[in-house]
């Protein structure tokens, strides 16, 4: 048996062993909140799980998938750059320009902007607290 075959067999055995140990010893506490969908900026209310979902999360996921595919397509060029000639460079540059134009178009259309319903404007309360503590520290020095 070659060392590579032994290594692959060993990795498979370790992976299955860890999965079985996880199933045996991990705590199992199912409750409704674990089955609800969670995304940043998406509030799920009782009774609305799985019924309504913002389409912008789906578009954002598709864009992520497209850019992952871009990396997959550009990687072979980066690995074999010593063998590529000017033709290969031109093809990759055209591909990158097309991907960049598509990304700029998505940004211009606002496809990647996800509106949050959460109130995260804590800056006024933090600034007032900092200013008050700064004034108190400086007033004791006078």
From TrEMBL:
E.C. number: 7.1.1.2
EC category name: translocase
Keywords for this protein: Electron transport, Membrane, Mitochondrion, NAD, Oxidoreductase, Respiratory chain, Translocase, Transmembrane, Transmembrane helix, Transport, Ubiquinone
Transmembrane segments: 6-25, 57-80, 86-107
Compartment annotation: Mitochondrion membrane
Reactions it catalyzes: a ubiquinone + NADH + 5 H(+)(in) = a ubiquinol + NAD(+) + 4 H(+)(out)
A Pfam family that the UniProt record links to this protein: Oxidored_q4
Bilayer disposition of the protein: Multi-pass membrane protein
Molecular function terms, GO-annotated: NADH dehydrogenase (ubiquinone) activity; oxidoreductase activity
Keyword Transferase: no
One Gene Ontology term, aspect cellular component: NADH dehydrogenase complex
InterPro entries given in the database record: NADH_UbQ/plastoQ_OxRdtase_su3 (IPR000440), NDAH_ubi_oxred_su3_sf (IPR038430)
Domain of life: Eukaryota
Gene3D superfamilies: NADH:ubiquinone/plastoquinone oxidoreductase, chain 3
Function: Core subunit of the mitochondrial membrane respiratory chain NADH dehydrogenase (Complex I) that is believed to belong to the minimal assembly required for catalysis. Complex I functions in the transfer of electrons from NADH to the respiratory chain. The immediate electron acceptor for the enzyme is believed to be ubiquinone. Core subunit of the mitochondrial membrane respiratory chain NADH dehydrogenase (Complex I) which catalyzes electron transfer from NADH through the respiratory chain, using ubiquinone as an electron acceptor. Essential for the catalytic activity of complex I.
Family (UniProt): Belongs to the complex I subunit 3 family.
Name of the protein in question: NADH-ubiquinone oxidoreductase chain 3
Species this protein is from: Chrysoporthe deuterocubensis
Protein's gene: nad3
């Amino acid at each position: 048996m070659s060392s590579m075959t032994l290594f692959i067999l060993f990795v498979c055995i370790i992976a299955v062993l860890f999965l079985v140990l996880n199933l045996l010893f991990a705590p199992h506490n199912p409750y409704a909140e674990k089955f609800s969908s969670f995304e940043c900026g998406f509030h799920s209310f009782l009774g609305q799980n799985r019924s309504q979902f913002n389409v912008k999360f789906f578009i954002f996921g598709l864009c992520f998938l497209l850019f992952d595919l871009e990396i997959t397509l550009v990687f072979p060029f980066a690995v074999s750059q010593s063998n590529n000639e000017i033709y290969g460079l031109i093809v990759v540059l055209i591909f990158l320009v097309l991907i960049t134009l598509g990304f700029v178009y998505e940004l211009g259309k606002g496809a990647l902007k996800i509106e949050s319903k959460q109130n995260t404007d804590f800056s006024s309360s933090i600034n007032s607290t900092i200013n008050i503590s700064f004034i108190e520290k400086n007033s004791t020095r006078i």
